[in-house]
Amino acid sequence: MTTTLAQHAEAEAARSSAPVTAIAVRDLRMSFAKRGGGSALRPRVTRVAAVDGISFAVKKGEIYGILGPNGSGKSTLIRAISTLLIPDSGEVKIFGLDLQKDEAQVRRLLNRVSVDAAFYKKLSPRENLLYSAGLYGIPRAEAEAKSLEILRRLGLREKAFYEPLEEMSRGMQQKVAIARAFLASPVIVLLDEPTTGLDPKSRRDVQEFVLELRDAHDATIILTTHDMPEAERLCDRIAFIHGGRFVAEGSADELRARVGGNATLEDAFIQLTGDDLHSDDQEDT
Ligand SMILES: Nc1ncnc2c1ncn2[C@@H]1O[C@H](COP(=O)(O)OP(=O)(O)OP(=O)(O)O)[C@@H](O)[C@H]1O
């Protein structure tokens, strides 16, 4: 069997004892055209910078959190890293592979979970997961056992495994999306607000599952959230994003220390961004 570029990059990473950079993002920029003002015949179109020159690096096995309010650019950043959007400029490297030049290789290393996950809604979680497993080349019996184990672990009752997805709540569908992302034991997982809309018990199930997976499989994870306790609990390092820019980066302790005293992470966010995480979204600011 020939060694792919990606396998080679991973093997190189495993050989070295120094922390390996899994994801390196350099000066990434992404803007969208937005209509506003002008007349009905001649609407004014302006460009809105959703991601405005972001650079950061994530080490192999790290859980890196991106914390910011609605409209701050989290999803756009995740979509650009997962090859769903082509950025205006900048560079993303995954284990040294270039996102655009080596797209096919990179795609095999990445898995993204978001609330807008695409499924065959008339089919059950079992059918959807077995279909995806087939695409990953996982044998059917193994896929069936693994899917069931992950869904149980995420607190989904077994009966739901066989019911059409369209009859399930959004939270349950979210768990199926998470199960699918972890089915193939991916090297890098991009979790776009994985617990938004989940009840407290489900949120905890998902958080514990994410921690276990990182510990058991050394997966590298980027996670976006607006939940402070979630960021503190899961993330080795956190970046505060505001208006498409990273305003601060560090461990939760480091971010709190930058503000001083007995500051909470929320205090740190407010002071460092000059904004409140729970204020109205940033889309029109
Ligand atoms: N497809 C698009 N077309 C036009 N504008 C977009 C598009 N996607 C995002 N935007 C704009 O880019 C900015 C950032 O949006 P983005 O969805 O990345 O924010 P977010 O931090 O993920 O928000 P949320 O927490 O609500 O998911 C917003 O101003 C948004 O309106």
Automatic annotation (TrEMBL):
UniProt KW Transport keyword: yes
Any one GO molecular function term: ATP hydrolysis activity
Residues annotated as domain ABC transporter: 25-268
Domain of life (superkingdom): Bacteria
Keywords per UniProt: ATP-binding, Nucleotide-binding, Transport
Cross-referenced SUPFAM superfamilies: P-loop containing nucleoside triphosphate hydrolases
SMART domains in UniProt: AAA
Family listed: Belongs to the ABC transporter superfamily.
Name under which the protein is recorded: ABC-2 type transport system ATP-binding protein
Species whose genome carries this gene: Deinobacterium chartae
